[in-house]
C-alpha cells in the first residue's frame, strides 16, 4: 500500500493558480536611527499584521532590532509586492508617529519614518524553516 499523500499547507490554490510565494523583507528607519524599543517593535508587528490581513497576506514571522525590522510574508500572486511594502511602511509610520510621538521625535525629524529603500528577497530557495529561524534569532533590544 502506498503512503497517503499529505497536502503541503504552504501551497495555496486560487481560481486559476496554484502558488506558494514567500518574501523576506527588511525595513530600516530613516537615517538608520535606532528608534525601536521592545514596545514599539511589538506595536509595529501588530500594525503590520493588520495591514497584511487586509491584503490577504500572511505575516509568518516578524522580528527586529533597534534599527531595522524583518518580515517573512506568504502572499498570493495578485499582490504587487511594492504596493504591499508601501502600505506596510505608510500605515505603520502613521500610527507609530502618532502613538509614540515624543520618543520618535528624539530620533527622527521631518515627515518620514522609514528609509525610502527596502530589502526584498524571494524566500523560495532556502527552506522556510531556515528563514524563520534567522528572523527569530535576530536580537531584540534589551
UniProtKB/TrEMBL annotation:
One of its GO terms (biological process) is DNA transposition. It comes from the Bacteria. Coiled coil: none annotated. Signal peptide: none annotated. It holds the Pfam family Y1_Tnp. GO terms for molecular function: DNA binding; transposase activity. SUPFAM superfamilies: Transposase IS200-like. This is Putative transposase. It comes from Murinocardiopsis flavida. The lineage of its organism: Bacteria, Bacillati, Actinomycetota, Actinomycetes, Streptosporangiales.
